[in-house]
Amino acid sequence: MLAIGQRECSHNISPDVAVILKRGCTEFEIDEKRGFVPSNTWEVSDDQKEKEKILNDIIDQSIFGASQPEHLKQHVFRSWIHWAYQNGDLTYLNYTGGEPLFQAYITYHNDLLQEANHVGETSKGKKKKSKKQTDNPTSTKRSNRKRNKNKA
Fold it and tell me: What digits encode the pLDDT tens for the residues 72-90?
């Protein structure tokens, strides 16, 4: 099984991608709080072996040799790229031509910090407003509302 997986991965993705062989779902191995145990301690009972034999007799085994349609392979591949992006794994850039998955979002906190550093004391000891603060119609409306509220 491992040799087949390595060959297919090397041919369809890259010979540099490591292929592993494991048993069961990863969630079962990492969720010890719910009573799951590592897969190397699992024991297959005779009852489980019998059920597997019945299922193998019922399920059409010929479908396992069929390959997935290209659109499905691309969907799976994109989901891997998105997972890497969401988890901070920058190797996804190797599969996007070095382009980020999404354009960077616009931030404003650095402008506010810079603006705060420009607000200083005048020669009379009063705080001086920066140009951005006085020209900002939203902050002017807000301060007018506060003044009107205090008058009432």
Answer: 999 999 999 999 999 999 9
